[in-house]
Amino acid sequence: MNLPSSRTIFLIVFLGCTGLMGVALFMEHVMGLEPCNLCILQRVAVIATAFIALIAAIHGPAVTGIKTYASLGMLASATGAGVSGRQLWLQSLPPEQVPACGPSLDYLIDVFPLTEVLSMVLAGDGDCAEVVWSFLGISIPGWTLVGFFGLIAICGFVFLKPKYKD
What we know:
The protein is an all-alpha fold. It has one domain (6-160): Bromodomain-like, CATH 1.20.1550.10. It has helices at 6-29, 37-59, 63-92, 105-111, 114-123, 126-129, 140-160, and strands spanning 134-135, 138-139. The protein has a two-stranded antiparallel ribbon. It starts with 5 loop residues before the first helix and ends in a 6-residue tail after the last helix.
């Protein structure tokens, strides 16, 4: 069985990330679902993974480069998976334990240093705990987590792939 080249697989990862962002933008601009701060961080992780995969697909590196790009893709996706998991945890809290709603990300960036902004955003707020849409009983961060696991699996496959056609 002929396996696709690493360039092809990285292109597929890029297209998958593009699809995830397309769905996110559709939900925001067509369905009117406003993203919370943790949703925005998940988008950043998807875009970072897409950027890494696109560079890898264009570059077409040798084995060491392939493993480096695959590792970076897994790291970006794992970061996004962690943020998705955090949001799912917030959504599972009883209403009395949900943190109060906080200011927007734009305001936080204008007022606080980046390290504090990340700390506050990762803490989450009431907006992040609200389930505004679900499909098959799974909320948006749940589906995003599934997407991140898929990206991690594909990048892991590229990392471990025993023989390259490149």
